[in-house]
Amino acid sequence: MEYSIVFESILLIGFMIFIGVILAYITPLNDNTKQTYTNIIVNVAMPCIILTSIFKVDINHNILRNIMLVFALSLLINLFGIGLGWILATIFYPDKTFQREIALLSGLGNTGFIGIPLCATLLGPEGALYAAIFDAGVDLVIWTVGVMILKKSTSFSLSSLKTMINIPTIAIVLGLIFAFINYRPPEIFVNLTSQLAALASPLAMFYIGLLIMSISKTQFYSVKSKIVIPTVIKLVGLPFVVFILIVLLNLDGMISKALLIQAMMPVLTLASILFTKYDADDKFGAITTVISTVISLISIPLILFLFTKFNYF
User: Fold this and answer.
1) SS3 46
2) Please, are residues 28 and 214 in contact by the beta-carbon 8 Å criterion?
3) At what angle do helices 3-26 and 200-213 cross, to 10 degrees?
4) Quick one: which of 24, 56, 278, 311 has the fewest CB in 10 Å?
């Protein structure tokens, strides 16, 4: 892999976040702005990235087998991160303050907003497809295990199942059905999805830039010691755990690269929204998202450089 492409991609992400910071002075982040950005990214741009990736890849039995493998490994990796975060939070915060939040932030990364566009840039359509499947695994964990942890309940309700039925998930299912029956939509639809897919990365980074400016110094200092565990696990711990897993399983090169990139992602951007919905500390979620995203601008290229240097990427 050309390391210059990695550096350029991360630099572009940094510039787009900076533009989001500037936009915050023009249009401060409020509930309406947050909802608008989230709706466009999740319900328009993300499904189009998924469909575009599927349309550009020749789906065969080998690809389908890889898809199932990536989905299973996504569940395993995310649950491992949550479990590790839960254990460390219990050790360092025996009063169970922020235990739920730390656990979820340690396992769930920004695999949709940053991971899929980054894989599309670095790995091409097939890499973006595997990244989208990995993100589907993240969604499944969020709306099952994540909801149970936030609600402090071990029961699984029908309403939790309904939340997993969203537009990105539908896009994955429809796209795979089209691929399985060897159907290619009209070229105008393919071009439309390709152009709308380009919205994902800029809008997601603008959103993070807006989020940065919505956090006060007082809010940051009140939780700064608690963001260490999820940030270190997400940006350092999980990538190296996934690397060991890849070596042990001797995985395919494209799968390995997609898994590594997704494992390096900062904390879930939608954490604050999720925490608000289930009465957890949404500001802690937002602060951890922002700090881990800023640090990831250094950690992602650094870790990729180390893996590339030793011919593991």
Assistant:
1) helix
2) yes
3) 50
4) 311
**189 vs 132, 186, 268, 278, CA distance in Å?**
20, 6, 30, 38
Q: What pLDDT is recorded for position 163? A: 61
Buried b (16+ CB within 10 A) or exposed e, 92-128: eeeeeebbbbbbbbbbbbbbbbbbbbbbbbbbebbbb
Is 80 exceeded by the pLDDT of residue 94?
A: no
pLDDT in tens, 150-186: 877 666 566 656 666 777 778 878 887 887 777 888 8
- The region, left, alpha or beta by phi > 0 then psi within -120 to 50, assigned to residue 250 is left
Q: Is 267 helix (H, G, I), strand (E, B) or coil?
A: strand
Identify which has the larger pLDDT, 306 or 230.
230
| Long-range CB contacts (within 8 A, 24+) of 246-251 | 251/69
Compute the distance between CA of residue 98 and CA of residue 280 in angstroms, rounded to an integer.
Answer: 8
In angstroms, the Cα distances linking 78 to 92, 142, 195 are 21, 9, 31
212-238 pLDDT, tens digit each: 887 888 878 877 788 999 999 999 999
Cα–Cα distances (Å) from 51 to 36, 89, 185, 188, in that order, read 22, 39, 10, 13
Q: Return d(Cα 83, Cα 89) in angstroms, integer.
A: 10
The amino acid that residue 301 corresponds to is P
Number of Cβ within 10 Å of residue 248's Cβ equals 8
Amino acid at 308: T
Rg, C-alpha atoms of the chain: 19
CA distance 28 to 198: 24
Percent helix, strand, coil in the chain, to 5, is 80, 0, 20
